[in-house]
Amino acid sequence: MDQQMSGGARPDLSIAISCFNEEECLPFTVPALASALAEAGIDYELVLVDNGSVDRTGQIIDELAASGLPVVKGAVPENRGLGLGFRTGFSLARGRFVATQCADGQVAPADVIRVYAALRQHPGSAIAKVRRRFRQDSWLRKIVSVTYNAMMHLLFPGIKALDVNGNPKAMSRETLQLLDLSSDDWFLDAEILLKARHLRLPVIELDVPGFAREAGGSNVVPATVLEFLGNIASYRLGGPWRDWKRRTPPLRPLTDGGP
Questions:
Q1: Secondary structure, 3-state, the chain
Q2: What own/partner pairs with CB < 8 Å and gap ≥ 24 does 172-181 have?
Q3: What is the pLDDT of residues 131-150, one digit of tens each?
Q4: Burial of 158 (0-12, 13-18, 19+ CB in 10 A)
């Protein structure tokens, strides 16, 4: 794993951005996000991970860092999925709070800030995230999303989020360490919420508009659907997280009638 670390004091917020063949998006989405965070007075860093790209993504990340933006670069030699990109970003993040964000600009910078603010205002440990409304996706993508979310709620009752894959997701560094995430692929989003359910962590979900990609094409392909189904089956049977659940008790007693 190639990586470039930045020095200095620990920022308040680190945002891990997994970038797979995002050469067309990054020159637009990263400066816009950086500008919004700076205007909001947030001490931040952007951890941009070249997640096995075969285009100029890595070079563009270097250019963004050279421009003076607070960018930390990470790299994965071969793409194994979104989750590994995020987890690589987490391993480089220095912030007191950490968040995920996609590189494609489908969630506005102002809404990223809203998620962070909601997390900071919550008394105690929690996860804050978005629920994308009025999404500017194809009908096929919308059908896949609705079906996937319905399956997750049917098979895992008690998940406190309507948009499982909605990013950004934000949490404290301590919560991230407790989750001990392991998914390399798109199921990382579900893993976060399933483990939050076990821990009985509050999930703050904010409604935001879901915009079209800033540029380029979607990385969700038919094989992704099969990947989701396989992961759902594995987690429903308990294998991938049985040991984690055994060694990680809930953080609070059951009081709301949930699982």
A1: CEEECCCCCCCCEEEEEEECCCCCCHHHHHHHHHHHHHHCCCCEEEEEEEECCCCCHHHHHHHHHHCCCCEEEEEECCCCCHHHHHHHHHHHCCCCEEEEEECCCCCCHHHHHHHHHHHHHCCCCCEEEEEEECCCCCHHHHHHHHHHHHHHHHHCCCCCCCCCCCCCEEEEHHHHHHHCCCCCCCCHHHHHHHHHHHHCCCEEEEEEECCCCCCCCCCCCHHHHHHHHHHHHHHHHCCCCHHHHHHCCCCCCCCCCCC
A2: 172/96, 172/97, 172/98, 172/119, 172/125, 173/93, 173/95, 173/96, 173/97, 173/98, 174/125, 175/125, 175/126, 175/127, 175/201, 176/90, 176/98, 178/248, 180/244, 180/248, 181/83, 181/86, 181/87, 181/90
A3: 998 776 667 677 777 888 88
A4: middle
The CATH number of 2-247 is which of 3.60.40.10, 3.30.720.210, 3.90.550.10, 2.40.50.140?
3.90.550.10
CA dist., res. 90 & res. 75, Å (int)? 12
What is the predicted pLDDT for the residue at 219? 56
Question: What are the residue ranges in the chain where pLDDT is below 50?
Answer: 1-6, 256-259
Which backbone phi and psi does 125 adopt, to 5 degrees? -70, 140
Structure tokens at 66: 């050279």
